[in-house]
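Known limitations

Files may contain more than one protein. Parsers should not assume a single record per file. Below, a two-record file is shown to illustrate correct handling: read the sequence, read the token line, then continue until end of file.
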Amino acid sequence: MSERVDAKVVVIGAGHGGGNVVAALRTAGHTGEIVLIGDEPIVPYHRPPLSKGYLKGTAAMESLKLRPDSYYASAGIALRLGARAVAIDRTAQTVRLAGGGSERYDLLVLATGSRARRLAIPGAALGGIHYLRSIADADAIRGAIGPGRRLAIVGGGYVGLEAAASALALGSSVVLLERESRILARVACAPLAAFFDDYHRAKGLEIRTEARVEGFEGRDGNVSALWLADGERLLCDAVIVGIGADVCDELAREAGIGCDHGGVIVDENACTSEPGVYAIGDMTWRPMPLYGGRMFRLESVPNALEQARRVAAHIMGKPAPAHEPPWFWSDQYDLKLQIVGVPFDSHRLVIRGDMAERSFAIFHLAPDNRVLAVEAVNRTPEFMAGRTLVGEARIVDPAHLADLSIPIKDLAK
């Protein structure tokens, strides 16, 4: 591994990955030119609060920024905000921008993330149908919800549930429509999904499962109702669609950089098939050493941060940081959900705590009782212990996990 301390680094994408890789490079002692290109007109910011505190108006824009505006100039990082990269020339080592202009690079980092998946059904282009990915999206939704407003949410994943909790807090009436037989069908075990289903219903959320939206109708260009596959018509003043995300890997594909169905293919250090080109964050199809090198895509802030640190270390010729187990979180009402690990090959579930008291953790175990994943609701100690148990592939006695008289920290020693 050779140091590239003075190389010019261009980063495409000013989200969590891009914003943190430029900072990590400067912290590690990089002295070369750094350029950060982002298609939004603002500096990198936290996206998770968009469906929670920011949507409810309890978190201000300034509190979302990863670093103050002044940081970038003081760190010698050139910002190209409101600029969209449209092509990569690998031979000339340049990035072409929309509207003219280009940036030469010695090293390139792709951090373009993912975009909200769109519905392709009749009426989907009507006004008042929202997707939540950016702060501009959140601003538009804030203007569409409030007392007396009828909101329909399409999709029962974490974004849909978080947005529902925020909209209810602001006085809207909300119906959530999920085409699967339960909410959180792809991202949570059945007991956890049932707990959240019950909790949301108790807060006033109407949940319809096995409900497939077939089309929208409008009045004066704005959505006014939607149709379900069974013929039912539901009136609404606004719609939020949260049905997943698609990777923004077009730049890489068009440049001939290796991609798979899951995004840009990278190794453990986020190196792509093209020497000198890295990719990080949601857009990557990456190996996970904790799961035998299995390849998959992670949509999470911690994943982007880990890859950013590994890229900075690789460029600077320094040892790579240790791999971390993947982790995620979600805030809904007074519930804090923290998840560590991915339950591949989960054989057994062990519940620690009391679901009725809204304080519990669900441990996913392999056949040999190795801890694969932990889903913790208002149980931060279990989540923290889970990071150790999952990261070290610990084998734990299921009876000890369920026994609250045994401190969880003792099991993680």
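...continuing to the second record:
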Amino acid sequence: MADPLMLPAHIRAFLDTQGWASAEITPVAGDASFRRYFRVRVGGRCAILMDAPPPEDPAPFVALAEWLGARGFAAPQVQAEDRAHGLVLIDDLGTDRMREAVDADPRRAPALYRAAVDTLIALHREAPPSVAAYDGAALLDRAMLLADWYCPAVGIAPDRAGYEAAWRAVLPLAEPGRPVLALRDYHAENLMILPGGRVGLLDFQDAMLGHPAYDLVSLLQDARRDVEPEIAAEMLGHYCAATGMGADFIAAYHVLGAQRNARIIGVFTRLWQRDGKDRYPPLCPRVWRYLEQDLVHPALAPVKAWFDAAIPSRLRGNPMLLRI
């Protein structure tokens, strides 16, 4: 029988050797990387196959999945792997994703977001593993993506030196006193709702050591869905109350929010222009709204001044539709 998915022979061979011969295979929505995911079913069993061929490297996912699982977090555990071909068979956490659950019934949003924040609180109490640091240099490098990709896309020749100087002035406010494991893609499309109210974790292979506010920003300033301002404020307050954080944390939250949103705008533009993924630029208007909300905080004054001078409001949106 012909393979309707046109999967390479080594994928079928891997599944066959792991006891998944003749499995039903269906694609699962992936992320912005070049990894692919498939749900495999046979005989009442179900698992997820990650296809991450070189230059993708599934090793960080495997290591972090083990680390998280050993500490009681609901991360999919590895059942089998073929490192040479970048294949990893992992637990299937089901189909009850937070994004769809909240969109279908907004009344569930407060409880689900609270569960997600409580998971972060628990994670941040753990001594982190040995991974690379998402430090000031890395934050600045990623923030530059907006100047390098978005600005040219809308016809702006940016003052890169001024942009860099503005970020250098504010990023020290986001230096963590005690770094935590920052999953770095912690939002409603990567969180699963599991029995007993547990939160299942996905897409954490790019985790680094960072500020505890980073994943909170990722959750509450979600590029893929509007988070109600009341819920965002309540959850930020809940985190601070549970951890004893104060004004310095709030300032860092907005600095990291501005940095992350600037990076995302640049990344989404690059995904369109370089990689032909035109589903991402239409998300930019939402990200711009988050960015502008962060820039209101006094800590961001130098960055806000640059944006006010460099990018007029009419050029803040979907780069596919905007140009001077």
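Parsers that stop after the first record will miss the second one. For reference, the second record is described as follows. The longest strand covers residues 36-42.
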